[in-house]
Specification:
heterodimer, A: about 400 residues, alpha/beta, 17 strands, globular, B: about 260 residues, Rossmann fold, binds adenosine-5'-diphosphate, binds magnesium ion
């Protein structure tokens, strides 16, 4: 499988702040081959769906935000920004004290730094974003600032590239929610870099909701300095094809990260979550739980890498993957990938794949609740444990407190 | 309370049941009439919980022969949820934890399912709030437990109280309480037993499964049955429980050995 002939040359000429990045990405795309199933991280991928992205037109006009009225209101003090790959998300916006735009030499210096630290700058989806992103939202966060809700929209068979960079300074605290929405067979190519300075704290949520026929490529690169706290809660549902890759590197140890994920697939969707956490200094911690629900003929993939090289003594990491198969034809591939070289570490991991628990179903049924309502109640409960962790009250505001999960047919 | 003219609520006839093709119940006979309290005793593994789960309709247990009539109809052909709605209640020996599902919501949904069948008006969330707070007093339970997930992180005793709370809400015709006394300290036992006594009426009946006399000091049964190897081996009045406490279950083994069963 390949990139169609001439796809690169029809792109708009490199220009603007991201010009060097665009050149770099396009060069990489032309020189490196398209992902192949012989590569471990693409082994299970339906590459035809990745290739289908080339059929989309690149975002060149404003997305239709006509359903804006149906969006929930933002919590008091929070700032909502909207990006669609073309319009300037900051136009007409007054940034609150503590949040400023990163520009010029400072931006050029920061750009790509975290990607390199996370060792993903040359990954194919990252290079794709490099090649096509037209603009960047780059912010410096200083102090305790109001939360930001970033709504990312894509529609009308377009490929929408978005790039965000957040420089969170020492001792700053920041809640950040991304709502990724898509309809009309559109696709997102999203690239995010977050740098957490010492003793800073970031509460990050990603709520990614497709409409069943859309695609999502999202690479989140996070770099943590000492005594920083990073929390990521990601929830995804409704993507025909998706690949979410959060990568965290703790550069000097003594930082803590928590990663909670929920991915829900149905119909013939394929969604992959590849997380990678790398400890480069001592006494770092990770608390990770990935939940997966696969219904119908869908395919869910989870790959959780944890790297503990020699300097990362006294690392304490735990990873748990819990998967629910709702149908005999659904498929779940969940795999931890531990590379531990340091000797004095605590690293636990576990993976379970199960169906709805018969005893739980029976308990509910023995209280007069029908089989289908009991199943729905159990699924809601299963999701709620992750949904409730989303920042900015996202679960209540965007989902009314729960996800609709259907298709229980063992 | 034994009344000769009382209506039979539950009639179990020569009931055989298996789990994973292993026969567990081997001919249980039992009739329970309105107003009666029956105790079912017996060693661990004698089939008491299996009997309770078969009555409640657990799909892992297959009835291989025999019948169970409930209020004159065939209980065994009903789905578990239908049995509950019609007034069959099983208090679990090991109540199940359900993370992420609010106890309050669970209680409301199940109470409304039963009320609908009773022809009563369903509660909205506000009315149910008042109702459940009233029923909490039956088991002297802290309202904080309503806000938690179903049984999640509850202690053994708290789980049992939550079971009796469900019984108080569901207003059952037949209440089967499987080892509701186990894991309770003496104060909690009194509270739970007090709740059961309070809920017993001339119109319903209670099947208490236990292997201790302790509970029967608080709730006086009209009949005591002793199970062994999947059958009821002996039936007597409340004095049988006291006798068992003195003699233990060795005679059960002897009887079964004599019959060539064990
Ligand atoms: N789900 C099950 N799977 C396998 N064996 C079971 C199951 N339930 C009960 N049994 C077996 O049936 C027998 C009776 O168990 P049980 O009904 O729990 O007895 P009791 O409640 O009197 O202690 C035991 O030998 C037990 O191991
Ligand atoms: Mg038992």
């Amino acid at each position: 499988m390949t990139m169609p002939e001439g796809w690169l040359t029809q792109l708009p000429a490199p220009a603007g702040t991201l010009e060097p990045v665009q050149r770099r990405g396009r060069l990489a795309l032309s020189e490196h081959s398209f992902p192949s199933r012989r590569q471990e991280s693409w082994r299970l991928t339906d590459l035809k769906r990745l290739e289908a992205l080339f059929q989309l037109s690149l975002a060149d006009q404003r997305s239709d935000c006509s359903n804006v009225e149906s969006w929930p209101s933002v919590p008091a003090l929070a700032l909502r920004l909207v990006i669609d790959g073309t319009q300037d998300p900051l136009r007409g916006v007054t940034l609150p004290a503590g949040i400023s735009v990163l520009e010029g030499a400072e931006l050029q210096q920061a750009l790509g730094h975290t990607l390199s630290r996370c060792r993903c700058a040359s990954d194919w989806p990252v290079e794709l974003n490099h090649g096509v992103s037209q603009q960047i939202l780059a912010l410096r966060i200083r102090g305790k600032v109001p939360p930001i809700e970033l709504v990312m929209v894509a529609d009308d068979s377009r490929l929408v590239p978005t790039r965000v960079l957040l420089l969170v300074e020492e001792k700053s605290e920041f809640d950040f929610l991304q709502v990724v929405s898509a309809k009309g067979q559109a696709a997102h190519s999203h690239l995010l870099e977050i740098h957490l300075g010492q003793e800073s704290k970031v509460n990050h949520g990603l709520l990614a909701l497709g409409d069943g026929r859309e695609a999502l490529l999202a690479n989140l690169a996070v770099e943590q300095e000492t005594r920083s706290h990073y929390s990521l809660v990601s929830v995804s549902q409704g993507w025909s094809f998706g690949r979410l890759e959060p990568r965290v590197v703790q550069v000097d140890g003594q930082a803590s990260a928590s990663i909670h994920g929920l991915s829900v697939t149905a119909a013939d969707e394929q969604f992959a979550v590849h997380t990678a956490v790398r400890f480069e200094g001592p006494e770092g911690t990770l608390d990770q739980v990935q939940k997966t629900i696969a219904a119908d003929r869908s395919h869910s993939i989870f790959n959780g890498a944890i790297q503990v090289p020699r300097p990362a003594q006294r690392t304490n990491a735990s990873q748990l993957s819990r998967s629910l198969l709702l149908s005999g034809r659904a498929r779940i591939d969940a795999k931890p990938e531990l590379e531990i070289v340091a000797d004095d570490v605590r690293c636990t991991h576990g993976a379970t794949v199960s169906q709805l628990q018969e005893d739980q179903l029976f308990y509910l049924r023995s209280r007069g609740i029908t089989h289908s309502s009991a199943a729905a109640l159990l699924l809601r409960g299963y999701c709620k444990e992750v949904l409730d962790l989303l920042p900015l009250d996202a679960s209540q505001r965007w989902l009314g407190g729960s996800l609709q999960v259907g298709g229980v047919n063992p | 309370m034994i009344r000769p003219d009382a209506e039979p609520l539950l009639e179990i006839n020569d009931l055989h049941a298996s789990v994973e093709d292993k026969p567990i119940l081997k001919g249980v006979n039992l009739e329970v009439k309105a107003g009666e309290i029956h105790a079912v005793m017996g060693r661990n593994g004698s089939g008491k919980s299996t009997l309770s789960k078969v009555l409640a309709g657990h799909p892992a247990y297959q009835v291989t022969s025999g019948s169970v009539r409930y209020l004159g109809r065939d209980l065994l052909e009903l789905e578990p949820e239908e049995r509950s709605r019609l007034g069959v209640f099983l208090g679990f020996q090991y109540p199940i934890e359900i993370p992420g599902v609010s106890n309050l919501e669970f209680l409301r949904v199940s109470t409304n399912a039963r009320r609908e069948k009773q022809g009563k008006e369903e509660f909205d969330t506000f009315d149910f709030d008042d109702h459940v707070r009233d029923r909490l007093q039956v088991v002297q339970m802290d309202p904080a437990f309503l806000e938690r997930s179903v049984n999640e992180g509850f202690s053994g005793g708290e789980k049992k109280r939550n079971e009796i709370l469900q019984m108080a809400l569901l207003d059952p015709v037949v209440a089967i309480l499987d080892e509701t006394d186990s894991g309770l300290d003496i104060d909690a036992l009194r509270i739970v037993a007090g709740g059961v006594n309070q809920l017993a009426s001339p119109d319903n009946c209670t099947l208490l499964i236990t292997h201790y006399q302790r509970l029967l000091d608080e709730i006086t049964p009209d009949y005591v049955h002793v199970m062994g190897a999947g059958r009821i081996l002996r039936t007597g009045g409340s004095e049988l429980a006291l006798e068992l406490e003195k003699t233990g279950y060795d005679w059960v083994d002897q009887q079964l050995a004599a019959e060539g069963v064990a």
